[in-house]
Amino acid sequence: MANMPSKCPVTGNRVINGSASVTPEMALALEQVGAGSAEFWLTMQANYDLFQIRHSRGVA
After folding, report:
1. What pLDDT, in 10s, does the model give residues 14-54?
2. Are residues 14 and 20 in contact, defined by beta-carbon separation less than 8 angstroms?
3. pTM as predicted
């Protein structure tokens, strides 16, 4: 993430800490620096979001 262009330098840290989501724009930026495909990052985010909802409902 250090090489990732960003409008806000703390965004990558917020994503890592779970206080911000991976956006399509960020997923493309990660792809551009060779950190996997945008689809990979968006799938990971969707899986995390689903886990959080299930966990909050006691389904996990």
Report:
1. 777 778 899 999 999 999 999 899 999 999 999 999 999 99
2. yes
3. 0.73
Residue 24: burial class (beta carbons within 10 Å; 0-12, 13-18, 19+)? exposed
Measured CA to CA, the distance from residue 4 to residue 50 in angstroms comes to: 26
Residues with Cβ within 8 Å of residue 1, at least 6 apart in sequence: 12, 15, 16, 30, 35
Q: Rounded to an integer, what distance in angstroms lies between the CA atom of residue 53 and that of residue 38? A: 23
What is the three-class DSSP state of 23?
A: coil
